[in-house]
Design brief:
The chain is mainly α. It has helices at residues 6-16, 56-60, 71-90, 114-130, and strands at 37-42, 47-52. The chain has one domain. It contains four helices and two strands. A two-stranded antiparallel sheet has the order 1-2. The protein is globular. Mean pLDDT is 77; it is low at 10-15 and 18-32. This is Lipoprotein.
Length: 144
C-alpha cells in the first residue's frame, strides 16, 4: 500500500511535542493544548494522510475555505512544496533534521482529490509559518 504524508505528520508531531513540559495527571485542564489530528483515508487509492501538529486545526479555520483555490493550483503548489521539503530532508547537514525527518511520498501523476491537496497545501503553509521556513511558492518569510 502507498501510505504517504502520515510519516510527515508523525515526524512533526514528535518534533513539536515536549514531554518534559507536562506531567501525568488524572484531571483535564481546559486551558491545556491538545494535539490536533486530521486524518483522511481512501482505501480505493490506497493512500492516507494524517496531520498531527499542535495548533493546525485552529490555524486552518483562519485560512480560505475549501473551494477557494482550484485543484490544479493546489496540485502545482504541492509539487513545489513537496519537492523542496524532500530536498531539505536529503540535505540534512544544512537543514534541521528534527524538522525534516522523512521524505513525503507524493506522486505527481496520482489524482489525490481536492480535499487531500487542500489539506496538504494548508499544512505546508502552516509548517512554513510555524517553523519559520520559506519554500518556493509559499508566503515569503524570513530568509535562512
Amino acid at each position: 500500500m502507498r501510505y504517504f504524508l502520515a510519516i510527515l505528520g508523525f515526524a512533526l508531531m514528535i518534533y513539536s511535542c515536549d514531554s518534559g513540559r507536562t506531567g501525568m495527571s488524572g484531571g483535564s485542564d481546559a486551558t491545556s493544548e491538545t494535539m490536533d489530528t486530521v486524518r483522511i483515508a481512501n482505501d480505493s487509492l490506497e493512500y492516507e494522510i494524517i496531520i498531527l501538529d499542535l495548533g493546525f486545526n485552529n490555524w486552518l479555520v483562519t485560512q480560505p475555505p475549501e473551494g477557494y483555490y482550484s485543484q490544479s493550483f493546489l496540485e502545482n503548489r504541492n509539487r513545489l512544496f513537496v519537492t523542496e521539503y524532500n530536498r531539505r530532508v536529503q540535505n540534512f547537514q544544512r537543514y534541521d533534521p528534527n524538522l525534516y525527518q522523512q521524505e513525503i511520498n507524493y506522486e505527481f501523476d496520482v489524482d489525490y482529490g481536492y480535499e487531500v491537496n487542500y489539506l496538504l497545501y494548508n499544512y505546508m503553509m502552516f509548517f512554513q509559518e510555524r517553523y519559520k521556513q520559506s519554500f518556493t511558492g509559499g508566503r515569503q518569510g524570513p530568509k535562512q
